[in-house]
Amino acid sequence: MRGRRGFTLIELMIVVAIIGVLASLAIPALMQSIRRSKTSEATMNIRRIFDGAITAYQADATSRAGGVLAATFPGPVSATPSENECCANGNMRCPALATAFDHLTWHKLQFSIDDPHFFWYSFDSEGAGTTASFTARANGNLDCDDVYSTFERIGFVDLQGGVTGGAGVFKNNVTE
């Protein structure tokens, strides 16, 4: 009959210590990865706003009398929902409010968000015709501290009247 042999207390303590070290290395990397995955929302929505701005600019603009108006981008709109409102409810997600994107500019841009989200959005524009330009912006506070993520994409009208934009999305403090 063979004798049964179990693990000694020292062997079990070594295994627990190794698991503890691995967990202390893996958990921060996992949290960073989760925050990075949330940033895809901002990049995707900035692209939607950018596309909506181009469509709005290229739409025919006429006066009531039938005269042609200089093409412009929709007017500016401040942070929607309001700045840092996402952290106000305690779970870092902006609530899905049916009225949050009711501003005329959001309608002209054909942009709204119907689900809870992590970022607040704004749109700035100025000028008309070949001097028109805009900035589509998303800000977020993924861990509800005093550091904000910023995603921006600019667009402007060239001398031939075509709308062009920056090479991509400007990103600052992506996972803050």
Condensed summary:
The protein is an alpha+beta fold and 176 residues long.
Summarize the structure in words.
The chain has 176 residues and is of the alpha+beta class. It is elongated and about 100 Å long. Strands 1, 2, 3, 4, 5 and 6 form a 6-stranded antiparallel sheet that branches. 34% of the residues lie in helices and 20% in strands. It has one domain. It has helices at residues 9-58, 85-88, 104-108, and strands at 77-80, 119-126, 133-140, 149-157, 163-165, 170-172.
Low-confidence stretches: none
Overall form = elongated
**Helix share bin:** 25-40%
Structural class: alpha+beta
Helical stretch count?
A: 3
How many distinct domains?
Answer: 1
Straight-line distance between termini: 62 Å
Order of helices and strands: HEHHEEEEE
Radius of gyration: 25 Å
Quaternary organisation of the protein chains = single chain
Largest sheet: 6 strands, antiparallel
Q: What is the count of β-strands?
A: 6
Determine the strand fraction and express it as a percent band: 15-25%
Mean pLDDT: 86
